[in-house]
Amino acid sequence: MENFTLDILNDLPLFQGIGKRELAQFATSIPHRLVQYGEGKPLAEQDHPCKELILVYRGTMRMYTHSDNNRFIFHERLQSPVVLQPEALYGIMPYYTHTFMAQTEARAIVIPKEGVTLLYSNFEVFRLNIINLLSTQIYRQTRWLWHNLSGNTEKRIINFIHMHSTYPAGEKILEISMEDLGQQINEPRMNVSYALNALQQKGLILLKRRKIIIPALEKLLQER
Fold first, then answer.
1. What's the whole-model pTM score?
2. Confidence bin at 211 (pLDDT 50/70/90)
3. Which CATH architecture has domain 2-58+80-144?
4. 3-state secondary structure the chain
5. CATH topology of domain 153-221
């Protein structure tokens, strides 16, 4: 168990740069467990308390986010290695804001909150890595406040999808009606329908009933 843990820690973002001696110390002194999630099983759920740090080192996940009014759902596909919402572990609202489901069999190291606190105290590199991760998230969110969201309907749709994406690349799925999307971007339904069909003709999205599939967000962003 311990040797296996040491092998996989090197591939996880929060442990990069930590020496072998420190990794061995983690394996023997920090509470943690290895968890396997079957296909379709939840790893964490939106609005549920976050009491542990989940570091997925194998498998593919689907991340779902429901809007507050439940009028739309945003999907993203995540590939390991990935850390599931470390920002949700502390603060005045320690709750997950996304739901994570295993799309394939997934495996993770799960560290309880008290174990993460020990890591903060005893491993400077871990502390710096998580500060860097959180700082990057804050920077991206702050930049969005000053992003130019004007433009034609196509650009407004693309900006809306980009704004709700955690990662600016890969497959995304937006479950929403054209009426609701129009309300979100302040455009009439007819304009939304025309713009979506134009994007589909360019091969950038695929339209289904109440569903917009974006195979590669990075290609869609080139249209802005």
1. 0.88
2. very high
3. Sandwich (2.60)
4. CHHHHHHHHCCCHHHCCCCHHHHHHHHHHCCCEEEEECCCCEEECCCCECCEEEEEEECEEEEEEECCCCCCEEEEEEECCEEECHHHCCCCCCECCCEEEECCCEEEEEEEHHHHHHHHHHCHHHHHHHHHHHHHHHHHHHHHCCCCCCCCHHHHHHHHHHHCCCCCCCCEEEECCHHHHHHHHCCCHHHHHHHHHHHHHCCCCEEECCEEEECCHHHHHCCC
5. Arc Repressor Mutant, subunit A (1.10.10)
